[in-house]
Design goal:
42% helix; seven-stranded parallel sheet; alpha/beta; 2 domains; seven-stranded antiparallel sheet; 17 helices; nicotinate phosphoribosyltransferase; 455 residues
Length: 455
């Protein structure tokens, strides 16, 4: 991917590294410092876009010409940047796995200029998609066995964001999407009914329903709340009887008292002998609204979830960071209050339960009954893939299976929608010793630097 997808300070730092011949490998760790309130877990996502970006990373002539016009970098730096490609290694948590505070989602090891330049793009991919996947996963928890449909396309912050939302929600169990392009790319089933404008364009609701049923007789879903919801249900029943539709119909409720309307609609459908008809609810839903509907046993078979999932409305960002943890053979760390980092290339070791996690050094063996969570996914700037036939749909399916497995082993306190208790990983003795040694060395140096000058 060509382009200046970076902050200016990264370009300036990279240019300074290159000018001074600083080409030793640097390891950067991308992690979330603390989970948002009402989050008991996060779901890793965004890795596929990250690896594609890294594999194609370069600055083309157009990019370099722009930088020349801005005079923000010296000419020798521009020449060095023109030859730069990403040649590093990446270890990462596979998409779909659950992670917690301070656990690396990925670690990059590359010559320091390369690793620095990709910071912003990696944070963008991983932070946004992890936030969305985590929000969508909570909808999955709330819905129980009901089907979930991605309706977020029109409210996401851009077309690329809409694709990412459809993919992230599919990973955590959304079965269909209204986004046709996303369905094509990721092998998700597209779905759609009608808009209120369709109903309003016809002389009356009956004419609209009859036309739609004639054009799309298989699995017809009627939007019934344009004028009067229960009147719309009755009209849908009448049209179904006259057209003799071959399969189960559906009615979609998009406003008002969804629970009360679902009960009344179910009664009307059953009385008409349409016991296999499905009720789909939509309209400003999120995990909290879905949970409320489930709690009162509203007879709803599927939920269309849009805006609040597509922008992760209650937690639209994560406190993510991409920090240097080693340069050459030297582990490094920050001591800033509230932003202390863990030094060295790391690994997360997971126990039998999700959240029974220990953060350690990458080179140390796994503790008893624990397995490594971060895996090598890129070597020397090239993705490690399964085979040439493995594509975007396969990636979504594999990530979905990983999520299902982690969800089955997630403790109840972390599953709660309100006031969850997220697990807190511990440190291995080796990492704890390294942290204290590096911290002690830094404090000793700072003390020495502040001694009064003699003489």
């Amino acid at each position: 991917m060509a382009g200046l997808y970076m902050d200016l300070y990264e370009l300036r730092m990279a240019a300074s590294y290159l000018r001074r011949g600083m080409e030793a490998p640097a390891t950067f760790s991308l992690f979330v410092r603390a989970l948002p309130s009402d989050r008991g877990f996060l779901v890793a996502a965004g890795l596929v876009d990250t690896l594609a970006f890294l594999e194609g990373f370069h600055l083309d002539d157009t990019d370099l010409d722009y930088l020349r016009t801005t005079h923000c970098l010296p000419d020798d730096a521009l020449q060095a940047l023109s030859q730069l490609r990403f040649t590093g290694d990446v270890w990462a948590v596979p998409e779909g796995r659950m992670i917690f505070a301070d656990e690396p989602l990925l670690e990059v090891t590359a010559p320091i200029a390369q690793a620095q330049l990709v910071e912003t793009a990696l944070l963008n991919f991983v932070t946004y998609q992890t936030a969305i996947a985590s929000k969508a996963a909570r909808c999955r928890l709330a819905a129980g066995g009901a089907q979930l449909v991605d309706f977020a396309f029109r409210r996401t912050h851009g077309l690329e964001a809409a694709l990412a939302v459809a993919r992230a929600s599919a990973i955590v169990g959304f079965t269909t999407t209204s986004n046709v392009e996303a369905a094509r790319r990721y092998g998700v089933r597209p779905t759609g009914t009608m808009a209120h404008s369709f109903v309003e364009a016809f002389p009356d609701e009956r004419s609209a329903f009859a036309a739609f049923a004639a054009d799309y007789p298989s699995g017809t879903v009627f939007l019934v709340d344009t004028y009067d919801t229960l009147g719309g249900v009755r009209t849908a029943i009448d049209v179904t009887r006259h057209v003799h539709l071959p399969g189960p119909i559906g009615v979609r409720l998009d406003s008002g008292d969804l629970a009360g309307q679902a009960v009344a609609a179910r009664r009307l459908l059953d009385q008409a002998g349409l016991t296999d008809a499905r009720i789909i609810a939509s309209g400003g839903l999120d995990e909290y609204a879905i949970a409320d509907l489930v709690t009162v046993r509203a007879p709803i078979d599927a939920y269309g979830v849009g805006t609040k999932m597509g922008v992760s409305a209650d937690a639209p960002y994560l406190d993510s960071a991409y920090k240097l943890v080693a340069y050459g053979n030297r582990p490094v760390m920050k001591l800033s209050p509230g932003k202390i980092t863990l030094p060295g290339a790391k690994q997360v070791f997971r126990g039998p339960d999700v959240g029974d996690d220990i953060i350690g050094l990458r080179a140390e063996p796994a503790p008893t009954d624990h397995t490594p969570l971060l895996l090598p996914v890129m070597t020397a700037g090239r993705r490690l893939t399964v085979d040439d036939s493995y594509g975007p749909a396969d990636e979504v399916i594999a990530a979905s299976r990983r999520f299902d497995n982690d969800l089955a082993h997630l403790p109840e306190p972390a599953r709660r929608l309100h006031d969850p208790t997220p697990p807190r990983p511990t440190l291995t003795p080796a990492l704890d010793r390294l942290r204290e040694n590096v911290r002690g060395g830094l404090l000793d140096r700072l003390t020495a630097e502040h001694l009064p000058m003699s003489g």
